[in-house]
Amino acid sequence: MAEQIKVSLIGNPNTGKTSVFNLLTGLNQKVGNYPGITVEKKVGVCKLSNDTKAHILDLPGTYSLNASSLDENVVIELLLDKSNKDYPDVAVVVSDVENLKRNLLLYTQIKDLEIPVILVINMADRMTRKGISLDIPLLEKELNTKIALISARKGEGIEELKRLIESYRVLSKEPCVNALSFASDYFERLQKAFPDQSLYKLWLVITQDVNFRKLNKQNISITSDFKIKSESELKRLQQKETIKRYQFINNVLKNGLSIDEKSATGLRARLDRVLTHKFWGYFIFLGILLLIFQAIYDWSSYPMDLIDEAFAWASEAAKAALPSGPFVDLITEGIIPGLGGIVIFIPQIAFLFLFISILEESGYMSRVVFLMDRVMRRFGLSGKSVVPLVSGTACAIPAVMASRNIENWKERLITILVVPFTTCAARLPVYLIIIALVIPDEKVFWVFGYQSLTLMLLYFLGFATAVGSAWVLNKLLKIKSKSYFVIEMPGYKIPLFKNVAINVIEKTKAFVFGAGKIILAISIILWVLASFGPNEKFDMAEEIVNKEYPNLSDEELDQKIASHKLEYSFIGYAGKAIEPVVAPLGYDWKIGIGLISSFAAREVFVGTLATIYSVGSDEEETIKNRMAAEISPVTGGPLFNLASGISLLLFYAFAMQCMSTLAIVKRETNSWKWPLAQLVFMSIFAYGVALIAYQVLK
């Protein structure tokens, strides 16, 4: 059997750790959660040689082992617990050649944990431009490790890194600095109380909210004569430890690193003055968003049309090729149209993830966070809340998880409660098909279309509602809080194609397969409910229609029979029961069924309507055409008009229709009070706004 080496990838944010992970693992990676908590973990496999594989765990970014968030706590707890199945054989610490001094603080701490450590110095391709030169043999000697000088952008040095990982057993486990020598009496007493334990690990147990085997702060106090100092005294000792480490790092870099300021070049300062300008910065951000939404529409229209027609053809081909019967009807009228209702939106969802990935990879997203902090402060949030709110445009679930980086509980709770207002990718299919039905496909100013402007306005409406709700909650929630906003501005980079591609593929795949399972199950249930009825009005549909419409053509007769059966099926009766509730919003019973089913997941709405409108239909039509042809029994005009369309868009903009998000909110807040309050308030608010919009516009 091949040897399995467990590798932990550790580093500060913005050092290129994800790029290194992607280069080592490619698409051979998966995303999950740490047991018992909702912090995301990425695991991948890398083949080092014919008989050796590395299982690589990409740990959350952390600046040091003095944790200030749950993400950072995850790193410490894993590195302290040898019984953990993910405990590493070797730690790979990724640093950035431009910020080596800061990055080495974390490296010296990891080295004290007596784990074999490899130091990766990334972004070597920037050394010439920045006038940086390194004495690698000297650095290896002083830091007591092996160093891989790499360029993740150019893929250089990765083979050397693989070689070092494979030969990790030759690495020294000895610390490179005695950082706890400043209070020798205190630490000698601690070591004497627990002679069999690592001194630095004991120090972490005392100063951090973590456990080390069976030891915790309370046990250290109870089981020994050693007395833990007060919190303020511990803080002072931590500061002295950090100073001691930086003194060592400065001495090492004095001889191992040199910078020729004359040869250093860069546009970063000039770009920052423009992109983070207190006035023009907002307009630039607005312009970028508008271009993104226009591109989503323009670039994806051709593949969407092909997918739409392909599913319509597949349904007809299956009907023609297979013998008629209930099972074939299930495939052609339930499963194929239901899946087609979500697959058609893969191009637009992929483009959305593509642009978000490019903004993050380029370093611009950090500027957006910094820029928006000025606005967020007024609403009881911090700039860090922008990360969950922006990532909420992909999915609310990881966005709620991302709030764990917010140290202040009040700001974190408010962020969790308002994140579902931001327009996630699950809303995108609903928005796109309704906008296509009710908004003219025309250009304004010869560049931007009314449809893309409407889509952008819906995104802004969600963001504005989230911020407005945060302001209200900040006034209502009586929780004392004090917070500071600190964010690192990474250097500008041309996005790495491999990183962007992996991100787009993984997130689109997760969305499609996650939604696909729900849609497949609901499509089958809906088809069954739509294909059978409780009484003779369903069973005798052909006789009833023939008697009522004796002079129709065969094609018109088939449509009338299919419509009659649907109306008197189980799903028809269910829809009729809820129709009085949704009728004031401009919806019929079919849309009502779509609304109810989409409380499991928003994206189910389109798949539901695709299934309902396909049952009994022999025409080779797309779902969009069937919806456009639907007639309102009240007005006699198109069911999907401007009034009902805007009402439906607003309902989906505000309603809480995602059971998974509710479950995550419950987990993050450790209470059902907050998710249930979200569900009730957002549903009532969505109904009220949709009602007003329809009544005004009709």
What does this 3D model show about the protein?
- The protein is α/β, with parallel strands linked by helices.
- The chain has 4 domains: 3-170, P-loop containing nucleotide triphosphate hydrolases (Rossmann fold); 181-259, no CATH class; 280-425 and 441-476, no CATH class; 508-697, no CATH class.
- It contains 31 helices and 11 strands.
- The strands form 3 sheets. A 7-stranded mixed β-sheet has the order 2-3-4-1-5-6-8, with helices on both faces. Strands 7-9 form a two-stranded antiparallel sheet. It has a two-stranded antiparallel sheet with strand order 10-11.
- Helix 3 (100-111) links the parallel strand 5 and strand 6 (117-122).
- Helix 12 (280-321) packs across helix 20, helix 13 runs antiparallel to helix 21 (497-531) and helix 19 (428-438) crosses helix 20 (450-476).
- The longest helix is centred in the middle third of the chain and has 42 residues, at 280-321.
- The chain starts with a strand and ends with a helix.
- The relative contact order is 0.08.
- Residues 34-38 have low confidence and may be disordered.
Q: Largest sheet, described in full?
A: 7 strands, mixed
User: How does the helix and strand content classify structurally?
Assistant: alpha/beta
Distance between the termini: 71 Å
Domains, number: 4
Global shape? elongated
Number of helices: 31
**Order of neighbouring strands in the sheet with most strands:** 2-3-4-1-5-6-8
| Residues in helices, as a percent range | 55-70%
Quote the beta fraction: 5-15%
The pLDDT mean sits at 80
Q: Uncertain spans, ≥5 residues at pLDDT below 50? A: 34-38
| Rg estimate, integer Å | 30 Å
> How many β-strand runs?
11
